[in-house]
Amino acid sequence: MVSLRGRWRPTLASAVVLLVGVTTGCGGQAPSTADGSTSGGTSTTTSTPANPYEQQRAEGVTRLLDDLTGTITSGDVPKIGSLLDDAATPAFRSRWVTAAENFRPRQSARGDSDGRLQFKSFRYQLAPTEEAETLVPADVQGRLDANGSSDAWVAPVELRYALGGERAPGVDEPEVVVTTQFVVARYGDAWKLVGDTAALGAEPTPTQLWELPGLSVSDVATAGGSSVITRYLRTSAAAANLPELLPDAVDAVTAFWGDSWDRRAVLVTTSDQDEFSDLVTQDGGAIGAAAAATVYSRVDFPRRTAIGQRVVFTPAADDLAPPTLDVVLRHELTHVAARAQTALDAPLWITEGVAEYVGRKGTYRRLADAAPDLTEVVRAGNTPTALPDDAAFAMDGQTSQLAYQSAWSMAAYIADRYDEARLKRFYLGVAATADPTRQDAAIRAALGVSRDELITGWGRWLDGQVG
């Protein structure tokens, strides 16, 4: 993904693709922080204005952002209008009304978290920046002048939030930082919101969970504490099955990966393609007929922490029977568990292969059950002699199916020929780097063979499984 300076976008980590049955596969891309880096913390200190005029401007806009924070978090829908400029577009107005509506207290059918997302922290504030000030577009400035505005500013803004709180005791995530720009206008001593990056003719501000209509939330007890499942107005049966599937799926991933991950998750179900597209950035990864995608804000590699991970289900998940949905869920949770120990450019044959192995474990009796296309290729005498490259996973049709199935079969071979503990060790070594030399060393350290010997053994195993 191309990281935009001064902006944050949710980063696509993986997508489970429905190819044959529930052939799963993911397109990876580099995560970004609010400042375009890939790890480490972010500052909470705003820049100091250079003169009294800028100081006054910053203080006025800070009051506006404080009012916006309080209005949204209290669910005070009627007050939204008093914060918005007459020049604000209907879409911009609707975004804030929807957000406030989703923060309103309500009675949950399940009686947990009163049906709303729970937050440890949530606030809008001015963001530190060293970039040159962006000018208000001439057409927007003209409308503001006509309305009697005495000043206008493209303000750098951060949304900082973390899920959690007293009514969601298990959800205790690090703070997510979303950096954007707001166009604001001054009238006397008061400032009003005019628009965001869309008003600047730039890419729209990323959509947050609470900015889509009809959000409801339920909490599910999992091994690491409360997990969260969100849904929207027309989300179908897939959402109803997830609370029952999630605890066992977390346990299945933990059985392979160990308990070094959070052992909880935030799942998001969507009812139409627009909702899914709003919540998932597709740059750098082919989603196709996906059933789910995992997104995240950033990875702090030194602390082995991934921030803002969400498993987002597409409307295609609606058609999945519970056993198939369970495979998808376990696959995605494997990515969640492994994210902080997986290099940004790790080869897909290892990241997808192991996720597929964990997702499908116990669901098949023969190679043909899990990898029908690969079985036919081997049966025809074309046993693979090389691991699939990343490009093969992004192709449509049989090419991508064979890539995913080949990746799964390599993981299955290692678990069968060696054991799962060595498969995990293999993953930790190979997925930690994109350097083939270091990968070769990791293969030998984990399995005691060279890459060529591994591939030869894999081919013989495939022939034996088919024969």
From TrEMBL:
PROSITE patterns the record matches: PROKAR_LIPOPROTEIN (PS51257)
Ranges where the record places region Disordered: 27-55
Composition-biased stretches (Low complexity): 36-48
Protein name: Peptidase MA-like domain-containing protein
Source species: Gordonia namibiensis NBRC 108229
